[in-house]
Design brief:
This is Glutathione S-transferase. InterPro entries: Glutathione-S-Trfase_C_sf (IPR036282), Glutathione_S-Trfase (IPR040079), Glutathione_S-Trfase_N (IPR004045), GST_omega (IPR005442), GST_Omega/HSP26 (IPR050983), Thioredoxin-like_sf (IPR036249). It is a single chain. It contains ten helices and four strands, in the order βαβαββαααααααα. It is α+β, with helices and mostly antiparallel strands. A four-stranded mixed β-sheet has the order 2-1-3-4, with helices on one face.
Length: 245
């Protein structure tokens, strides 16, 4: 697969939303900084030109597409600027319809989008609340969210359909599961000390989560995940980010 127009992805290693798009691009077979430019944005010290020229919301991910071929730090006014991770997932899928990121079957397309919606409404708020020390029932919200996602998954393999194709549903959730693993198994969070490791042990041993564990093993074995996720970097960043009172 090849791009017909220049593409620059503005991203940040620490950001799960940006990681969504990196995964999708990797699944198309495109190589970072060969077929497209991957431009790392320091979220604590963003370039002055980023907000006015790339994304008025000043967030990652964002894509510059088309126009003359220029470097990421010299964006052209002739290129189209796009933002928001779920929008960009579908944009990448539309650029490469044969990638199967977005199923051709309308029913499976709807299931992929419903899976993402369930993740956003059932799992993500509970995960953020637990890590931020705002959960009123410990890790139960995380456990419940994962069980609800399991109910929507294919019997084996990946999330949607027959479990053989990596879709936008997988790209949308995988970055957050990856960061959950780093956080919980290292006990990074403002919950009571030891609760993260305890929650991770439950996810690794309790039969309630057998389907999720198989899913997670399948995803982590994919080349797209291996080339876009830097666990050592995240561990170092999280070790200084999450502190307890």
């Amino acid at each position: 697969m090849a791009l017909l127009e220049p593409l620059v992805l503005y991203t940040a290693k620490i950001c799960p939303f940006a990681h969504r798009v990196e995964l999708a691009l990797a699944e198309t077979g495109l190589k970072s900084n060969k077929d497209f430019e991957r431009y790392e944005i320091d979220l604590k010290n963003k370039p002055d030109w980023y907000q006015p020229k790339i994304n008025p919301a000043s967030k990652v991910p964002a894509i510059s597409y088309g126009g003359p071929k220029v470097t990421g730090d010299q964006p052209s006014s002739e290129s189209t600027k796009l933002a928001e991770s779920l929008v960009l997932l579908e944009f990448v899928a539309d650029l490469f319809p044969n990638s199967r990121l977005l199923p051709k079957d309308p029913v499976l397309r709807a299931k992929a989008r419903f899976f993402i919606d369930a993740f956003a409404n059932k799992f993500a708020p509970a995960s953020f609340a637990f890590q931020g020390g705002k959960s009123t029932n410990g890790a139960e919200g995380i456990f419940s969210g994962i069980e609800q996602l399991q109910d929507l998954m294919a019997p084996e393999g990946l999330a949607i359909g027959d479990g053989k194709d990596f879709t936008i549903a997988d790209a949308a959730v995988v970055p957050f599961f990856a960061r959950m693993e780093v956080s919980l198994k290292n006990d990074f969070g403002v919950y009571p000390e030891g609760e993260g490791k305890k929650a991770w042990e439950t996810l690794q041993t309790n039969g309630r989560f057998a389907r999720w564990r198989k899913y997670w093993e399948t995803v982590k074995a994919r080349e797209s995940f291996k080339t876009t996720f830097d666990e050592d970097y995240l561990t170092k960043q999280y070790s200084t980010r999450w502190t307890r009172a």
